[in-house]
Amino acid sequence: MYLAIISSVLIGFLAKFTDLIVDDGLNINKYIGYSGSVVYGFLLAFLMYSYPALTPLCLAVSISVIMTGKIDAPTHSLAIASMIFFIAFFGLPQVNFLFLVTFLVAGTIDEIGNDYIDKRKKKRYAKIFFQNRLTLEFTVFIISLITGEWILWISMASFDVAYILTGKIK
CA spacing 20 to 30 A to 68: which of 57, 108, 117, 124? Predict the structure, then answer.
Protein backbone atom coordinates (compact mmCIF):
# COMPACT_ATOMS: atom_id res chain seq x y z
CA MET A 1 0.00 0.00 0.00
CA TYR A 2 2.93 2.36 0.59
CA LEU A 3 3.77 2.30 -3.10
CA ALA A 4 0.18 3.30 -3.93
CA ILE A 5 0.40 6.22 -1.50
CA ILE A 6 3.74 7.39 -2.86
CA SER A 7 2.47 7.07 -6.45
CA SER A 8 -0.73 8.98 -5.58
CA VAL A 9 1.29 11.79 -3.98
CA LEU A 10 3.55 11.99 -7.04
CA ILE A 11 0.56 12.03 -9.40
CA GLY A 12 -1.08 14.84 -7.40
CA PHE A 13 2.17 16.81 -7.30
CA LEU A 14 2.95 16.35 -11.00
CA ALA A 15 -0.61 17.09 -12.16
CA LYS A 16 -0.72 20.38 -10.24
CA PHE A 17 2.90 21.25 -11.06
CA THR A 18 2.03 20.83 -14.73
CA ASP A 19 -1.01 23.10 -14.21
CA LEU A 20 1.22 25.72 -12.63
CA ILE A 21 3.62 25.65 -15.56
CA VAL A 22 0.95 25.69 -18.27
CA ASP A 23 -1.94 27.63 -16.76
CA ASP A 24 -0.29 29.90 -14.22
CA GLY A 25 2.96 30.69 -16.01
CA LEU A 26 5.33 29.16 -13.45
CA ASN A 27 8.73 30.16 -14.80
CA ILE A 28 10.10 26.68 -15.46
CA ASN A 29 11.08 25.10 -18.75
CA LYS A 30 7.94 23.71 -20.40
CA TYR A 31 9.74 20.46 -21.21
CA ILE A 32 9.81 19.71 -17.49
CA GLY A 33 6.02 19.91 -17.63
CA TYR A 34 5.95 17.49 -20.56
CA SER A 35 8.26 15.09 -18.74
CA GLY A 36 6.11 15.31 -15.62
CA SER A 37 3.04 14.54 -17.72
CA VAL A 38 4.56 11.36 -19.09
CA VAL A 39 5.53 10.31 -15.57
CA TYR A 40 2.11 10.92 -14.05
CA GLY A 41 0.45 9.12 -16.97
CA PHE A 42 2.77 6.18 -16.35
CA LEU A 43 2.02 6.27 -12.61
CA LEU A 44 -1.73 6.21 -13.26
CA ALA A 45 -1.35 3.10 -15.43
CA PHE A 46 1.00 1.58 -12.86
CA LEU A 47 -1.52 2.15 -10.05
CA MET A 48 -4.30 0.50 -12.04
CA TYR A 49 -2.10 -2.47 -12.86
CA SER A 50 -0.59 -2.89 -9.40
CA TYR A 51 -3.70 -2.06 -7.36
CA PRO A 52 -6.78 -3.18 -9.33
CA ALA A 53 -9.12 -1.70 -6.71
CA LEU A 54 -7.90 1.74 -7.86
CA THR A 55 -8.73 1.12 -11.52
CA PRO A 56 -12.32 2.46 -11.44
CA LEU A 57 -11.19 5.56 -9.55
CA CYS A 58 -8.27 6.34 -11.87
CA LEU A 59 -10.38 5.76 -14.98
CA ALA A 60 -13.31 7.78 -13.64
CA VAL A 61 -11.15 10.79 -12.80
CA SER A 62 -9.48 10.62 -16.22
CA ILE A 63 -12.79 10.31 -18.06
CA SER A 64 -14.49 13.06 -16.04
CA VAL A 65 -11.74 15.59 -16.76
CA ILE A 66 -11.89 14.71 -20.44
CA MET A 67 -15.71 14.96 -20.54
CA THR A 68 -15.73 18.36 -18.82
CA GLY A 69 -13.00 19.86 -21.01
CA LYS A 70 -10.33 20.06 -18.30
CA ILE A 71 -7.75 18.52 -20.60
CA ASP A 72 -7.01 21.89 -22.13
CA ALA A 73 -3.26 21.81 -22.58
CA PRO A 74 -0.87 19.59 -24.54
CA THR A 75 0.82 18.52 -21.31
CA HIS A 76 -2.38 17.03 -19.90
CA SER A 77 -3.20 15.42 -23.25
CA LEU A 78 0.26 13.86 -23.12
CA ALA A 79 -0.46 12.52 -19.63
CA ILE A 80 -3.67 10.84 -20.86
CA ALA A 81 -1.85 9.46 -23.92
CA SER A 82 0.95 8.20 -21.68
CA MET A 83 -1.58 6.53 -19.39
CA ILE A 84 -3.27 4.82 -22.36
CA PHE A 85 0.09 3.71 -23.77
CA PHE A 86 1.15 2.17 -20.47
CA ILE A 87 -2.26 0.56 -19.94
CA ALA A 88 -1.73 -1.12 -23.31
CA PHE A 89 1.70 -2.21 -22.09
CA PHE A 90 0.71 -3.38 -18.57
CA GLY A 91 -2.84 -4.42 -19.32
CA LEU A 92 -6.04 -3.24 -17.69
CA PRO A 93 -7.41 -5.21 -14.75
CA GLN A 94 -11.07 -6.09 -14.59
CA VAL A 95 -13.06 -2.96 -13.79
CA ASN A 96 -15.90 -2.82 -11.27
CA PHE A 97 -18.45 -1.09 -13.49
CA LEU A 98 -20.68 0.07 -10.61
CA PHE A 99 -17.74 1.81 -8.91
CA LEU A 100 -16.57 3.26 -12.22
CA VAL A 101 -19.98 4.82 -12.89
CA THR A 102 -20.33 6.01 -9.27
CA PHE A 103 -16.91 7.67 -9.29
CA LEU A 104 -17.51 9.07 -12.77
CA VAL A 105 -20.75 10.75 -11.69
CA ALA A 106 -19.13 12.16 -8.53
CA GLY A 107 -16.04 13.38 -10.43
CA THR A 108 -18.17 14.99 -13.12
CA ILE A 109 -20.32 16.76 -10.49
CA ASP A 110 -17.12 18.09 -8.93
CA GLU A 111 -15.74 19.39 -12.23
CA ILE A 112 -19.04 21.02 -13.24
CA GLY A 113 -19.47 22.48 -9.74
CA ASN A 114 -15.92 23.81 -9.82
CA ASP A 115 -16.59 25.57 -13.14
CA TYR A 116 -19.88 26.94 -11.81
CA ILE A 117 -18.37 28.51 -8.69
CA ASP A 118 -15.48 29.93 -10.71
CA LYS A 119 -17.98 31.89 -12.83
CA ARG A 120 -20.38 33.01 -10.08
CA LYS A 121 -20.24 34.32 -6.57
CA LYS A 122 -21.60 31.55 -4.41
CA LYS A 123 -21.89 30.89 -0.74
CA ARG A 124 -18.63 30.23 1.04
CA TYR A 125 -19.45 26.58 1.79
CA ALA A 126 -20.33 25.76 -1.80
CA LYS A 127 -17.12 27.43 -2.92
CA ILE A 128 -15.00 25.43 -0.46
CA PHE A 129 -16.83 22.22 -1.38
CA PHE A 130 -16.42 22.51 -5.14
CA GLN A 131 -12.98 24.15 -5.17
CA ASN A 132 -11.70 21.13 -3.28
CA ARG A 133 -13.83 18.72 -5.33
CA LEU A 134 -15.26 17.05 -2.24
CA THR A 135 -18.10 15.15 -3.96
CA LEU A 136 -15.64 12.54 -5.20
CA GLU A 137 -13.69 12.59 -1.93
CA PHE A 138 -16.84 11.81 0.11
CA THR A 139 -18.03 9.23 -2.42
CA VAL A 140 -14.71 7.41 -2.30
CA PHE A 141 -14.74 7.53 1.50
CA ILE A 142 -18.21 5.96 1.63
CA ILE A 143 -17.27 3.24 -0.87
CA SER A 144 -14.14 2.52 1.19
CA LEU A 145 -16.22 2.37 4.35
CA ILE A 146 -18.72 -0.04 2.79
CA THR A 147 -16.19 -2.29 1.05
CA GLY A 148 -13.20 -2.09 3.38
CA GLU A 149 -11.03 -1.10 0.38
CA TRP A 150 -9.33 1.75 2.24
CA ILE A 151 -6.67 2.00 -0.44
CA LEU A 152 -9.28 3.91 -2.47
CA TRP A 153 -9.73 6.70 0.04
CA ILE A 154 -6.11 6.78 1.20
CA SER A 155 -4.90 7.13 -2.40
CA MET A 156 -7.51 9.77 -3.16
CA ALA A 157 -6.63 11.74 -0.03
CA SER A 158 -2.89 11.41 -0.78
CA PHE A 159 -3.43 12.75 -4.28
CA ASP A 160 -5.59 15.63 -3.02
CA VAL A 161 -3.16 16.69 -0.29
CA ALA A 162 -0.25 16.73 -2.75
CA TYR A 163 -2.31 18.56 -5.38
CA ILE A 164 -3.51 21.22 -2.94
CA LEU A 165 -0.10 21.75 -1.31
CA THR A 166 1.60 21.98 -4.70
CA GLY A 167 -0.90 24.69 -5.64
CA LYS A 168 0.56 26.80 -2.84
CA ILE A 169 3.86 27.07 -4.77
CA LYS A 170 2.63 30.08 -6.76
Answer: 124
